[in-house]
Amino acid sequence: MEEMEEELKCPVCGSFYREPIILPCFHNICQACARNILVQTPESESPQSRRASGSGVSDYDYLDLDKMSLYSEADSGYGSYGGFASAPTTPCQKSPNGVRVFPPAMPPPATHLSPALAPVPRNSCITCPQCHRSLILDDRGLRGFPKNRVLEGVIDRYQQSKAAALKCQLCEKAPKEATVMCEQCDVFYCDPCRLRCHPPRGPLAKHRLVPPAQGRVSRRLSPRKVSTCTDHELENHSMYCVQCKMPVCYQCLEEGKHSSHEVKALGAMWKLHKSQLSQALNRLSDRAKEAKEFLVQLRNMVQQIQENSVEFEACLVAQCDALIDALNRRKAQLLGRVNKEREHKLKVVRDQISHCTVKLRQTTGLMEYCLEVIKENDPSGFLQISDALIRRVHLTEDQWGKGTLTPRMTTDFDLSLDNSPLLQSIHQLDFVQMKTSSPVPATPILQLEECCTHNNSATLSWKQPPLSTVPAEGYILELDDGNGGQFREVYVGKETMCTVDGLHFNSTYNARIKAFNKTGVSQYSKTLVLQTSEVAWFAFDPGSAHSDIIFSNDNLTVTCSSYDDRVVLGKTGFSKGIHYWEFTVDRYDNHPDPAFGVARIDVMKDVMLGKDDKAWAMYVDNNRSWFMHNNSHTNRTEGGITKGATIGVLLDLNRKTLTFFINDAQQGPIAFENVEGLFFPAVSLNRNVQVTLHTGLPVPDCYSSRASIA
Q1: What is the pLDDT of residue 120?
Q2: Share of the chain above pLDDT 90, in %
Q3: Are 659 and 652 in contact (CB under 8 A)?
Q4: pLDDT tens by residue, 61-81
Q5: CATH topology of 1-40+120-164 equal to that of 549-708?
Q6: Global pTM value
Q7: Where does the record place the Fibronectin type-III domain (predicted)?
């Protein structure tokens, strides 16, 4: 019952209610405290003046809060009448429970009457210390408020249930233990308070003082006071007015105050309201029970969180230790390769040392022998062997000159540890959400070890997090434009791997992935940075070539089985940047005129390159060349090709030009300008020609210097 104690204390004095009265706002207050917070109002605000003017509608009039403010909104500690310049300001205090309390405007007159019977100042006003509603008292004063007998009974039972010693009810600060109780005053006193407040003289001399324990028993056995009508003190409550929501007596009904109201028997309404309160309490009890169970659940969660954290930390340490062990094993393997490379280098160098030592010993012996021969004075004998010695010396000299004095092995280790993917994986090592509170899929994880770029293509691979409980119906892959622009969708589907072709060379792309299902989409994965190749490496494309084209050398060399020209394209298309590739003529019979250049993917494959509007080419024979596009021939230039010749094609999409080279020299002027779009390397030839493609080449120096000057 200790939780109930705050309900039993007065908001003004902070002690248990003594003779509590019920204000019209249904809050309670001690009679003595109510008298202490009375404030006198101006004459014009009195209920008599209101009734005289016809504005009064009830015995108790609530003040217009726009005209009167009994508490400071700025919390300055003062309350005042806001509508009257002559009204004095009165300092306010705070009760023990924090409620603002207003002291009386003037000291109450000395009297021995009870607070209810003592006269109150005329035109007095009282403000509820809890809801701050104000009302002006009528002539009845505090007697016009009903007494809360039920609250008194609850307080009595509560105090009787406490086993602690009874305390004095008049001590201002720390109450002392009571020594006596006055049966007439119904008050517990300690010795100092009894001598000061209840002297044994005058009318108080006839009061009976008993020990506190006996007073508790007599209070418990005393008959409960019957609630009487506030307007007719000699009449008991017998009926209940439903509209006014208050008990009334028989005389109230006779006077006609509730003539038009619905009135019911007090006992019936008592039982009805008890039933309603019991039902409301049952519902509230259910909520309290749920709250207690919830608190138990929260306390169990605290213990479970601590246990799970220990288990999770152990799992995390084990996973990190496993990664460290795997790294140590890989470290041992790499060290083994380094040791193997070192032993190989040492073996080669030692073999060369041994070989050079033997060679040097032989050379030194030959030199010493020749010197001794030179010392001989027999001309005929010298000439017999001199030719042979000269040949041996020259032969030995030649043997030393054929790379013998060049180390067969470098001291450097041509090994470089590529640890950037692993470092990136370590930096991206993070927790994934194992359980989702919503049915949206978990964020996919990009598998960095399987993501790569080749030329202008990018391959990406991803997966769902381990132990993900929400399945994904598909994935959305997004890339930016290679210049840090906005992302765009490049793949939507169920697969977990995708290759994106047709990207720009020498560009940096950002990629991200998200999953989706019927409910919605997940968060984006971490962004992956992809770098395409600076130069293009490609071969001829058998899939798009004419059927008469013959491929060899891993599709780098082509010829034809027909006497007619047939077209073959490269596998890689270009739409941005500067690109250069070459063809070498492996076979050139009967002076044919092959064509080299670029074309769209849908170019005609059974005619010479440049005959339609889908190709831009240079065709060349053994003496001269021409540029051709849409069957238009321009810029005849002297200089042809033979077996072993090299034809270069330079596609500059930054400047939108196409230029040709023969044997590292530019052939004619710039062949075509204002070329833009997607182009594929192309060549047309017949059976008299065979060419080999060379890619991944830098731009010719002559063109680079010219471009820098421009």
Answers
A1: 64
A2: 36
A3: yes
A4: 444 433 333 333 333 333 333
A5: no
A6: 0.39
A7: 440-535
pLDDT for the residue 218: 60
Looking at residue 69, the DSSP 8-state letter turns out to be B
Helix (H) or strand (E) holding 231: none
Check if the beta carbon of residue 248 is closer than 8 Å to that of residue 241: yes
How many Å apart are CA 270 and CA 264, to the nearest integer? Answer: 10
First-to-last C-alpha distance (Å) of the chain: 96
Superfamily of domain 1-40+120-164: Zinc/RING finger domain, C3HC4 (zinc finger) (3.30.40.10)
CATH topology of domain 549-708: Jelly Rolls (2.60.120)
Mean pLDDT of all residues belonging to the chain: 82
Write the DSSP symbol of residue 98. S
Residue 94 and residue 101 in contact, taking contact as beta carbons nearer than 8 Å? yes
Give the Cα separation of 489 and 513 in Å (integer). Answer: 10
> Closest by alpha carbon to 651, among 622, 621, 680, 631?
680
pLDDT tens digits, 493-504: 999 999 998 888
Query: Are 511 and 479 spatial neighbours (Cβ–Cβ below 8 Å)?
Result: yes
Tally Cβ neighbours within 10 Å of residue 300: 10
Distance between alpha carbon 688 and the CA centroid of its chain, in Å?
67
φ, ψ for residue 62 (rounded to 5)?
-80, 135
Segment (H or E) for 100? strand 100-101
Give how far the C-alpha of residue 135 lies from the chain's centroid of Cα atoms, to the nearest Å: 55
Tokens 């909104």, residue located: 73
Token readout for 371 is 């010197």
d(CA 682, CA 615): 8
**What is the CB neighbour count within 10 angstroms for residue 666?**
18
Please state the φ and ψ torsions of residue 177, each to the nearest 5 degrees: -70, 130
**C-alpha closest to that of 29 among 105, 119, 111, 126:** 126
pLDDT of 361 reads: 92
| The pLDDT value given to residue 416 | 81
d(CA 62, CA 558): 107
Q: Which class is domain 445-531? A: mainly beta
Per-residue b or e along 367-400, where b marks 16 or more CB atoms closer than 10 Å to that residue's CB: eeebeeeeeeeeeeeeeeeeeeeeeeeeeeeeee
Are the C-beta atoms of 21 and 146 separated by less than 8 Å?
yes
Count CB atoms within 10 A of the CB of residue 220.
11
Alpha carbons within 13 angstroms on the beta-carbon side of residue 294 total: 6
Which of 160, 151, 187 has its CA nearest to residue 20?
A: 151
Task: Give the C-alpha distances (Å, rounded to integers) separating 152 from 10, 84, 334.
Answer: 12, 39, 90
Domain boundaries, the chain: 1-40+120-164, 170-216, 281-400, 445-531, 549-708
Residue 306's contacts (CB-CB under 8 Å, 6 or more residues apart) are: none
Other CB atoms within 10 Å distance of the CB of residue 57: 8
Please report, as a single letter, which amino acid is at residue 62: Y
Token readout for 373 is 């021969």
Region of residue 191 (phi > 0: left; psi between -120 and 50: alpha; otherwise: beta): alpha
Rounded Cα distance between 488 and 623, Å, is 51
Q: How far apart are CA 568 and CA 545, in angstroms?
A: 5
Residue 660 in 3-state DSSP? strand
Q: pLDDT by residue (tens digit) across 113-167?
A: 454 455 666 678 888 888 888 888 877 778 778 888 888 888 877 777 664 567 8
Structure tokens at 603: 């170019």
pLDDT tops 90 at residue 324: yes
Two tokens at 635? 């810029």
CA neighbor of 570 nearest in space, from 664, 445, 483, 696: 696
The token duo for 28 is 């309670």
The DSSP line for 532-599 is: --SS----B-TTTS-TTEEEETTTTEEEESSSS-EEEEBS--BSSSEEEEEEEEEEE-S----EEEEE
Query: Rounded CA gap, 87 and 125, in Å?
Result: 13
